[in-house]
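Lay summary. Proteins are chains of building blocks that fold into shapes, and those shapes determine what they do. In this project we predict the shape from the chain. Here is one chain we studied, written as its sequence of building blocks.
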Amino acid sequence: MKFKQMSEEIHTNIGGVDNITHVEHCATRLRIHFKNKQLINEEAIKNIEHVVGIVSKTGQLQIIIGPSVHEAYQDFMDVSQFEEKDNNTSLESIEIEESDEKKDFLYYVNKFGNFSAAIFMPVVPALIVGGLILAIKNLLVNYFNVPMESGTALLMTAIFSAGFSFLPVYLGYTTAKRLKIEPIMGAFLGCLLVSQNISGVTDLDFLGISIPNVDYSGSILPVILGVFVMSYVDKLFEKIIPETIKYFLKPLLTMIIVVPIVLIILGPLGTKLSEYAGNGVMFLMDYIGGIALPFLSMLYPYMVMLGFDKALSPVGFAAIESLGYDPVYVVMGFISNLCIGGTALAVASSLKDKGKKGMTYSFAITALCGVTEPAFYGALITRPKVLIGTAAGALSAGLVAGIFGLKSYVMGFCPGLLTALFFVAPDGSAANMILAAIVVVVAVVVSFVVTKIVLIRTGEATDAEKAKKLSVNTPVQ
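And here is the predicted shape, written in a compact code that computers can read:
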């Protein structure tokens, strides 16, 4: 247990297991939901070994670990012995604390972003694998004479399909888990939607009511809306059904009520909303894409810092679902991550201390591969002037990507060099991939050069105090 000591110290300083309501993680952060903020010692947590920084949210403390966060999560769960079934009053406790906070626009963006992270981040490994496998298959078929009907191509297509076509099943499970109902019931609803007897089938009806023909393969909103309705129905039956027959009767009655609502109303509605979102993205990119994308790329690191990036992820999913590609969400993350990597490379090359130089180089490589928190919190935020280089790179690369229309054909998180195959077109044409390569060069080179100029003029890289962890762990408000 590499993170055992860290987990023990976090457990102590967060108020113990009785103060925890929910634990989850994203690509780099351990997210702990709590009941009472007064019991938490944030200063102590910031100085724990392996903790890069913290972000304090309403009802949630995000502890930045880095790429090893899954291992840290497992160790924390073992150390804390936390079980959600022992914290059934958690939602009420959170609402009591939140009632004292100003519920403005940013408050609701935060809430939506936290919810999106909880349901989408567990699915990320399947999406990344499926997307990369599809890209590799397209390369093999179009450039290496592998027949489309060959066993190799069919197997790779099946792996992709398992990642994306069954997305409603995964999202049904994670959404139900987040809403604190039986996760398997959410997955059950997702399985129903992608069933060959439902998805894309015509002339269906329920008690004489016509069921619209909808292809639910790879959809996101229908199952999420359905699980929301399921959570209310589940809670109602939890109260009124006798304990002796609840185990059998509650899931049966829940599905009898929820399934027709989803198939007749919510499924078609969610599909239409996805289409409108996709059309809205295309409208913006057609008219202001060359301007919007550079600024979004510049702001993306701060969206990640504040958790707003997850609030935009449904836009990317909707674009992929309705258009077949995403010209915004993955692209701006790709550009931003490369620029942070380029800036971190410049910082590392300017350091004199070999230990700090090696650590910062590792942060830079990690950022170029798509995970930026170690570099951003461990090397850049303590030298705020170098973020000028990051912004310059994002502006330059964003202009190139926006003007020439860079597209990602796979929806994913943590885009970087390791996921560059997201930009391979399904027909095997090389234009989009070449454009992605140009964007990589512009982002990294401009960020690196501008950051070096800033470092030379300000002399920040030679100040050994800048690398201390004191400033790294300054809490983000």
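What the prediction tells us: The longest strand covers residues 20-25.
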